[in-house]
Amino acid sequence: MLAVCADKLLRAGVDRHRADLQTGEISNFSLPRRFDLVAAPYRVIQALASEREIEGFFRCIHAHLAPGGSCILNAFSPLRALDGMRRHWITAGETFNWDVPYEGGRLVRHDRRWRMDIERQVLYPELAYRRYADGKMLDEVVLGIVMRFWYPDEFVRLVESYGFQVVGRWGRYKGELYGKGPELVLQFREAPQLQH
């Protein structure tokens, strides 16, 4: 992914000093500068299952926000109350997600939802990707992921509990009301008493 991004930046004429690509743990990194905006898209916080990882994530945000800077963070908004998640999230088999044709074949994705930790609000789905050509499966890759979840008020309390002040909230990037759309999107900055 980094190689693809580097190639795209090069083709777009983006100067190397304006975009620095690195890989590392989102809950334990140190860069030599601070930023006016930190964006953590694609629900990355949901991949952090332990309290230690979440604490490290917010510590890194504190360390990298410039004075007056803000962070934008998102998570999915659960479609069901906790009791509903307990009863309906786990399924016995696979669920079809999508089928995409490509030259010479097609790529199909299913998900498996066999496990969850309801007390910690952590889901453990598996995504099964299969390539087909001429009616035969060529290969399969199964990706097990962690998806921690919060309800709208819990997500705000989580961010505030780490010394941040929420300054914006949306239900998705298209502007839906917070708690009403499919996403929980928060913009926050250091709480006034913590600003340097």
Count of individual helical segments = 4
**CATH-assigned homologous superfamily of the largest domain:** Vaccinia Virus protein VP39
Uncertain ranges = none
Tell me the Rg in angstroms: 20 Å
CATH class of the largest domain: Alpha Beta
CATH architecture of the largest domain: 3-Layer(aba) Sandwich
- Structurally, the number of domains stands at 2
- Helix fraction bin: 10-25%
- For this structure, the CATH topology of the largest domain is Rossmann fold
Tell me, what's the shape?
globular
- Number of E strands: 11
Which sheet architecture does the biggest sheet show? 4 strands, mixed
Strand portion = 35-45%
Mean pLDDT: 92
Q: How is the largest sheet built, in terms of strand order?
A: 1-2-11-10
Structural class: alpha+beta
- N-to-C order of helices and strands: HEHEHEEEEEEEHEE
* Straight-line distance between termini: 35 Å
Structure, explained:
- This protein is α+β, with helices and mostly antiparallel strands.
- The chain has four helices and eleven strands.
- The strands form three sheets. The chain has a four-stranded mixed beta sheet with strand order 1-2-11-10. Strands 3-4-7-8 form a four-stranded antiparallel beta sheet, with no helix packed on it. A three-stranded antiparallel beta sheet has the order 5-6-9, with no helix packed on it.
- Helix content is 21%, strand content 37%.
- It is globular.
- The chain folds into two domains: 38-78 and 149-196, Vaccinia Virus protein VP39 (Rossmann fold); 82-147, N-terminal domain of TfIIb (Single Sheet), CATH 2.20.25.
